[in-house]
Design brief:
Helix content: 40-55%
Number of helices: 15
Strand order of the largest sheet: 3-2-6-4-5
Mean pLDDT: 91
Number of strands: 7
Order of helices and strands: HHHHHEHHHHHEEHHEHEEEHH
Distance between the termini: 50 Å
Strand content: 5-15%
CATH superfamily of the largest domain: Beta-grasp domain
Low-confidence stretches: 321-343
Oligomer: single chain
CATH topology of the largest domain: Ubiquitin-like (UB roll)
CATH architecture of the largest domain: Roll
Length: 343
């Protein structure tokens, strides 16, 4: 095992709860464009899950038991996991600043973050509030992958996705807008239609959603692409889904904008998110949702995680016995129909 550098050793002494507390405390100092995105990223790549898998006697068997699908290893996406952050464009500068600090032992986390943000700010000539989020992400990435893998990564920012083009303020403003409903929108008989913008590590796009429809069902209506060919977890649309009853956890998403225009979390969704291990905040309309349970009453911007699984019981001690019984999954239904039709 490679010897840890001083900065790694320092970071290794901070557990997940303290990291999440730090993200919360720094939120007011992170520009709104990345405030929620930073918190979402930390839930997409939980330190506790990484540590649990590292300690497993048989990693592959443990991953299978947790029903983990997709690309869950941070080491496989060092330069791309945070592409949905506006601050991703500053990743090369932030990565270099972190590498330059590997042999230093900081006084504390606040000082470390401010020092790295200051260094990157001076280089990029932008406000530190645009850099604190990606700095936090970079430090957690270093902790999870180790200095050798961190240094070996190319450190290249990927091309800016369409939904992240423009100034930070203009992106925030755009996320807050709703589609125009026309001059007759005041009539109760008019079905209001909105747009969900989705972002993942490879692309971004949009699909329509009717007022009071859930995100997963709306996504399934968009058959404009071969979704399964793009991501084998996607049997109906761009949002992975295997049920419609909050029983599988496949459809968890991060909400980057418009969370206030989604339905409030009900008891079932909150309970199941704990079972899955997705660490939902206690807010009535939090930044993590199950797409099959979140109904839209306006435009929303979501980010789709590259993986899903059920690890709450093993990692966080949540009682798996409380998991609601699943309905027949979309995957199983398609398998049955395919067999019957001879496909």
């Amino acid at each position: 095992m490679a010897q840890k550098r001083p900065l790694e050793s320092f970071l290794n002494g901070i557990d997940e709860a303290k990291w999440l507390s730090l993200v919360d405390s720094l939120a007011p100092k992170i520009h709104e464009v990345d405030r929620g995105a930073t918190a979402v990223w930390f839930r997409f790549f939980p330190l506790s899950l990484k540590n649990f898998l590292d300690s497993a006697e048989n990693r592959d068997e443990t991953v299978a038991k947790m029903l983990i699908q997709g690309t869950y290893e941070l080491r496989d996406q060092i330069d791309s996991s945070h592409r949905f952050l506006f601050g991703h464009r500053y990743w090369p500068t932030v990565k270099r600043a972190i590498e330059a600090s590997l042999d230093k032992t900081p006084a504390d986390m606040d000082a470390l973050i401010e020092d790295l943000a200051k260094t990157a700010s001076e280089s990029e000539q932008v406000s530190r509030e645009l850099l604190r989020g990606i700095v936090l992400v970079g430090l957690m990435t270093l902790l999870q992958v180790g200095s050798d893998a961190f240094i070996a990564a190319e450190g290249k920012a990927l091309p800016t996705l369409e939904a992240l083009k423009g100034s930070p303020d203009s992106i925030v403003a755009q996320r807050a807008k709703d589609d125009s409903q026309g001059i007759f929108s005041f009539l109760k008989s008019v079905d209001k239609k909105f747009t969900v913008t989705w972002i993942d590590n490879d692309s971004d796009g949009r699909f329509g959603i009717t007022n009071d429809a859930d995100i997963a069902s709306a996504a399934a209506l968009d058959q404009s692409r071969d979704w399964k060919g793009r991501d084998e977890r996607c049997w109906e649309g761009v949002v992975p889904v295997e049920c419609r009853s909050a029983a599988c956890g496949a459809c968890w998403v991060g909400v980057l904008g418009g969370e206030e225009k989604l339905s409030e979390v009900q008891r079932l969704e909150r309970k199941q998110m704990g079972i899955f291990g997705y660490n939902m905040p206690e807010d009535g309309r939090p930044f993590l949702r199950l797409a099959c349970q979140a109904k839209a009453y306006g435009n929303a911007t979501i980010v789709i995680p590259p993986w899903n699984g059920v690890f709450g019981r093993k990692v966080y001690g949540v009682e798996e016995s409380k998991l609601e019984p699943a309905t027949t999954s979309a995957r199983k239904l398609r398998e049955i129909l395919g067999e019957e039709s001879g496909d």
